[in-house]
């Protein structure tokens, strides 16, 4: 015996450490397959339809005269912009679906990191959590509430700053200089 008490149960499952996924991470074959699948599906099922729809709407607005066309290039610049915005909106709209696909992978370090990261972000209402060392809260612990309305009541109350509509910025309204009447020391 080494002098230390071992309080672990013999059949207790030891949690695996959360893998570090950094810029030097090399994805597994299954993860590469999911990356390719996500890329294809986000392109064909989200980006192409949103780009085409935004281009059609833009062309319709130009035809009705709501948007003006360029004198030299016509509607092309606005259509290209609408296409690019639709493309990126489609890609961004597929992120959650792709994350779920990675979370469903069995032996994936990336899926494990996503599963463990989700647990830290969404804690149940009324749950205490340890803050990061980069948080500005001095106490080190914070209370998570169930709604944003509850957080408003916890904010400090500040008095409104007087507003001056005059052009003279040196004398805002509501602030006055008090001349202290005192003894004359001369």
Automatic annotation (TrEMBL):
Q: Which GO terms describe its cellular component?
A: endosome
Question: Does the record carry Cell membrane as a key word?
Answer: no
The UniProt record lists the keyword Amino-acid biosynthesis: no
Localization: Endosome
Chief subcellular site? Answer: other
The UniProt record lists the OCIA domain at 24-109
Q: Which of UniProt's keywords are assigned here?
A: Endosome
Q: Where is this region: Disordered?
A: 110-134
Lineage, top-rank taxon, reads Eukaryota
Tell me its family. Answer: Belongs to the OCIAD1 family.
**Subunit note:** Interacts with OCIAD2. Interacts with STAT3.
- The protein's name is OCIA domain-containing protein 1
Query: What lineage does the source organism belong to?
Result: Eukaryota, Metazoa, Chordata, Craniata, Vertebrata
Q: Which gene encodes it?
A: OCIAD1
